[in-house]
Specification:
Blueprint (H helix, E strand, L loop, with lengths): L1 E8 L5 H4 E8 L6 E11 L1 H8 L16 E8 L11 E4 L7 E5 L4 E2 L6 H4 L5 H11 L8 E4 L5 H13 L2 E6 L5 H7 L3 E4 L4 H9 L6 E4 L3 H8 L7 E4 L12 H5 L4 E4 L2 H7 L2 H16 L7 E6 L3 H10 L3 E5 L3
Parallel strand pairs: 8-9, 8-11, 9-10, 11-12, 12-13, 14-15
Antiparallel strand pairs: 1-2, 3-4, 3-6, 3-15, 4-5, 5-7
Helix pairs in contact: 4-5
Bound molecules: NADP nicotinamide-adenine-dinucleotide phosphate (NAP).
């Protein structure tokens, strides 16, 4: 057993108040496990919600947070090919630690040439964007996709993937100043999320009939987005940044038969056959190698300063990265 630092919370609550940096022991890897020494890990909104006890499923406490991160394999279990030692990999959970064990089937090998800081943000948000675009509508070249929270990591990945696939994106943002940055990624249109959004968006769409809208905000923002869908169109909710409930006018169902779906990557990964999971990560890593999904890092903190790091992450504006090891 060797001892390493890990961020942990022993009770749910405000992340900056309940997170501690503890010494934890790491046992040698079991038969099908690898031991990974972590380089870096981002702080995603869901990580904060998990620590608050308001996301998905309850965790056993104490828990190490961190939905994703990048590190290097330093040891392997008896059934794992020794060639894994030294490989850069992505881990999927409990990432805010210097070292830990993960089952081999839950790590993803990172191709040579992809920097750890870039790779560390590829496990959650770009795969979510890929699946949102491919699972809910059979989009044709030239079709419009609508989305709010377009400045988020998921939103930016939606723009880049759609642009590559020949689908147009209408992007709803809180800050008009974000438009230029999103256009540089390939956004076809950017509108501001206010009471004039519907009219501005209809001007852009010019009679087109969008069949897919992606919602990560909820409340009135989602209502406005759904209002732009054609009859029978689908609004997929995958996030709730405003923490406001969906408000769906009865007429959206009665007269337009809109479809309201939800998406959670964790649920998808648990249910998908292994070949679909590897195909998903292959697509994401290939696009990343071509320059997509570059993180917008606004601050970096060492693991020992995790409380300050989460406080900065709560301010928004881009990703905060925990710099853990070299
Ligand atoms: N369901 C899934 O499987 C899944 C997977 C991945 C992510 N998600 C969800 O997707 C969402 C985005 O995650 P991310 O990591 O991409 O986020 P991120 O990069 O940290 O960006 C946060 C986004 O939320 C916006 N925002 C923050 N507070 C807001 C508020 N009160 N009202 C409206 N907008 C607000 C920000 O807008 P500004 O730029 O204007 O600040 C920004 O667009 C989160 O809700 C996350 O939980 C879900």
């Amino acid at each position: 057993m060797t001892s390493f630092l890990a961020a942990r919370y022993h009770r749910c609550g405000r992340p900056g108040e309940v997170l501690e940096v503890d010494q934890v022991t790491v046992a040698p890897p079991r038969k099908h496990e690898v031991t990974v020494g972590m380089f870096c890990a981002p702080i995603n909104p869901a990580d904060l919600n998990v620590i608050e006890g308001k996301y998905g499923e309850a965790r056993d406490l104490p828990d190490v947070p961190g939905s994703e991160g990048c590190g290097r394999v330093v040891a392997v279990g008896a059934s794992v090919d020794g060639a894994w030692v030294g490989r850069k990999v992505l881990v999927d959970g409990q990432a805010w630690r210097e070292s830990g064990n993960w089952p081999l089937d839950r790590v993803v090998a990172v191709p040579d040439g992809l920097a750890a800081d870039h790779a560390a943000v590829l496990r959650v948000n770009p795969p979510t964007a890929w699946l949102l675009l491919h699972q809910f509508a059979a989009l044709q070249p030239g079709d419009w996709v609508l989305q709010n929270a377009a400045t988020s990591a998921v939103g930016r990945a939606v723009i880049e993937i759609a642009h590559q696939r020949g689908w147009k994106t209408l992007n709803v943002v809180r800050r008009a100043a974000a438009a230029e940055e999103l256009r540089a990624l390939g956004a076809d249109a950017v509108v501001v999320d206010d009471e004039d959004m519907g009219a501005a968006a209809k001007d852009v769409l010019g009679g087109a009939a969008p069949r897919l809208a992606l919602n990560a905000i909820g409340g009135v923002s989602a209502t406005r987005l759904a209002g732009l869908l054609t009859s029978g169109g689908t609004l997929v909710t995958y996030g709730a940044m405003s923490k406001e409930a969906l408000k769906i006018p009865n007429g959206f169902l009665i007269f337009r038969d809109l479809i309201f779906r939800g998406f959670w990557l964790t649920r998808w990964l648990r249910a998908a056959p292994p070949d679909q999971v590897s195909s998903l990560f292959d697509q994401v890593l290939r696009l990343a190698a071509s320059g997509c999904f570059t993180p917008r890092v606004v601050a970096e903190f060492p693991l020992a300063e995790v409380a300050a790091a989460v406080a900065r992450a709560e301010e928004g504006g881009g990703k905060v990265l925990l710099r853990i090891g070299g």
